[in-house]
Amino acid sequence: MIPFNKPFIIGNELRYIEEAVKSGKISGDGLFTKKCQQFFEEKYKFPKVLLTTSCTDALEMAAILCDIKPGDEVIVPSYTFVSSANAFALRGAKIVFVDSYKDNPNIDPEEIKKHITSNTKVIVPVHYAGVACDMEAIMNIAKDHNLFVVEDAAQAIDSYYTFSDGTKKALGSIGHFAAFSFHETKNIIAGEGGMLVINDNKYFERAEIIREKGTNRSAFFRGEVNKYGWVDLGSSFLPSEIISAFLFAQLENLDTIQAKRIDIWNRYLQGLKALADNNFIQLPIIPEFATNNAHMFYIVCRNYDERTSLINFLKESDIHPVFHYLSLNKSEFFLKDNLEIDIPNSDHFTDCLLRLPFYYELSEEQQQKIIQRINTFYQNK
Amino acid sequence: MIPFNKPFIIGNELRYIEEAVKSGKISGDGLFTKKCQQFFEEKYKFPKVLLTTSCTDALEMAAILCDIKPGDEVIVPSYTFVSSANAFALRGAKIVFVDSYKDNPNIDPEEIKKHITSNTKVIVPVHYAGVACDMEAIMNIAKDHNLFVVEDAAQAIDSYYTFSDGTKKALGSIGHFAAFSFHETKNIIAGEGGMLVINDNKYFERAEIIREKGTNRSAFFRGEVNKYGWVDLGSSFLPSEIISAFLFAQLENLDTIQAKRIDIWNRYLQGLKALADNNFIQLPIIPEFATNNAHMFYIVCRNYDERTSLINFLKESDIHPVFHYLSLNKSEFFLKDNLEIDIPNSDHFTDCLLRLPFYYELSEEQQQKIIQRINTFYQNK
User: In the record, which positions carry N6-(pyridoxal phosphate)lysine (chains A, B) (predicted)?
Assistant: First the structure.
């Protein structure tokens, strides 16, 4: 059986959990949480990182930091995970869904422009498959209209964007805030887990407070205040050290993991290129301004029925690809308060995009089988 | 050095984490999450249990399930952890703080009655130190005024309440909802972690949806709907299987842990009883309707200054007791929108209550040293 995903232990995960227990502290913000945060801050030049229990929680922290109030509008791609929208809906925002590019699931800046009103407060670009949205265009729109940009970088660890002046920056370091995921399907995993990146130092202190249940406990432990108490809204957004210890062991092996994933990605590309050249399928596009973090390999089928046939065909060989999001503008929750609108490219990816098995322990032999079966499927089409 | 708290590994914690990874699933709601939930449902007759990433998150789920809207009033003891209030404040509730009993930090039902208005929607009894609030009185008030009761049972695992008709029920099974914690300071630990108990089956389905980011994913996996999507508000409240695996190993040893903690509690009682008899300190009160889960051993000093002297005296012997909450009605956040009010018993516990070191691996020898030093402190008073 070749599953879509498979979690893995690569190094000292269990030993570090034991170490954390022995250190006398496994609640949040212990030694391993600090090691992980420091790792990210140094490697990707993130000004401040706070680990969270999930990417969803990081997005919720961003929503509180943006001071979302009922009536504020937040622009989100329709082709995304529900949390990109939910985190802002929880604070009372009106979600404004916009379309992807025709040939790339990322949000189209031209579509963003069309949907800005005097109530718009935040743009949420989602770096689909870890491939950068056009951040220069998006940041310019945000500057023109005085908006926050919250990067949904759930899939975008170790991925970069190059500006037109040649400056290259890690995804997550460009908007005001960014949210990453360490869900078991991501490149670096902790089962469930995430982090918030804060790129503007004027939000550092409040972010710490919100994450510590609305208390100034972090400042207290640094000796900046002489007692701590309830000063703001907040929640318990910080993960157990058991999670951070597991995560840190993965981070120590980031380069190994990434090298292996790039190989897997390139093998898929080589093995399926002929099908794309013959227009049976469409392959992922990596724009010139983006890098490839090998988070995901997807194909876009010609239509919904052909995708369904392909899924069934592969399942007969015990290969388990999976489709992805359903256009959120068509969800039951959105349609309670909104009229149906047409967002065609998002619908196209909803119907036709298919993600292939992709995980650290996927063997070359397994991958050749997947590639061979897909080619066989299209032989008589 | 005798710290206030010390986390511990008691059995198969690491082996189960490894098993979870090998099973192919470490995101939420895997095998170990289900095992933990089933354990609690069977042992304590909880109708439905959902593990969460923290007790705070379980309280937030309860607030969404109670449909809290701006202007709704929620009655909370002033002497409690910030999350008991914050979870409802996040949904826009007005928090109404009320006082504890004079000789017991639990909420006083007579004080609850005085603060009910036409806007009251929820009462949040907090079972301080795992000792039951007067749930019969509180449930009667709730029934009379058609209110929700959300038990903050963070500290109350394995603790019971006996009704006047002799019926004995586990704490957490009495209100509409209850929230428990597995923070490293609790009897059963996962570093950070929690669970929501749902006692009314009319909320089962919505609770699952809210916990799964507002999607009906759980129903989908049971085959009840043929696709899943965004149907409600929600968040990512479910913990990683790494957490659940660790927790399940602890649960397998619940009886051993509880037996040891009861011994520790009783040794403190014996060793400090004479000081209480001579009115130097006050000891915990276990009302007749309550049981003792040995979560915490605290003493109440005669005044703030004496408590400070005692803390300093014990620290000289490398013993680290800690005080607890600060009256939330005096917090900066509450005073932004509210006038200062007088809640005297809460202030008394804020100033005078002191928690003694208490953890599974605390040795008898260490404990005798603590008891001896406290007695020495009072010798010349």
Answer: 186
Treating both helix axes as pointing N-terminal to C-terminal, what angle do A241-251 and B241-251 enclose, rounded to 10 degrees? 130
Cα A11–Cα B5–Cα B255 angle in degrees, nearest 5: 85
CATH number of B254-379: 3.90.1150.10
| CA–CA gap between residue A249 and residue B220 (Å, rounded) | 34
Distance of CA B375 to CAs B282, B331, B354, B379, Å? 14, 34, 15, 6
H-type alpha helices, chain B: 13-22, 31-44, 55-65, 82-89, 109-114, 135-145, 204-211, 217-221, 241-251, 254-277, 304-316, 332-337, 344-352, 364-379
- Reported as half-sphere exposure (CB side, CA atoms, 13 A), residue B244 has a value of 30
Strand A120-123 relative to strand A160-162: parallel, antiparallel, unpaired?
unpaired
Q: Cα(A298)–Cα(A278) distance, rounded to whole angstroms?
A: 17
DSSP reduced 3-state for A162: strand
Using the beta-carbon criterion (under 8 Å), do B192 and A230 form an inter-chain contact? Answer: no
Q: What is the pLDDT of residues B239-283, one digit of tens each?
A: 999 999 999 999 999 999 999 999 999 999 999 999 999 999 999
Using CB atoms, pick whichever of B57, B185, B333 lies closest to residue A236.
B57
B45 is catalytic: no
- Selected from 1.10.3720.10, 3.40.50.2300, 3.40.50.11420, 3.40.640.10, the CATH number assigned to the domain covering A13-251 reads 3.40.640.10
Mind listing the pLDDT tens digit for each residue in B13-64? 999 999 999 999 999 999 999 999 999 999 999 999 999 999 999 999 999 9
- Which among A169, A186, A273, A315 is annotated as catalytic? A186
| Closest residue, chain B, to A245 (C-alpha) | B242
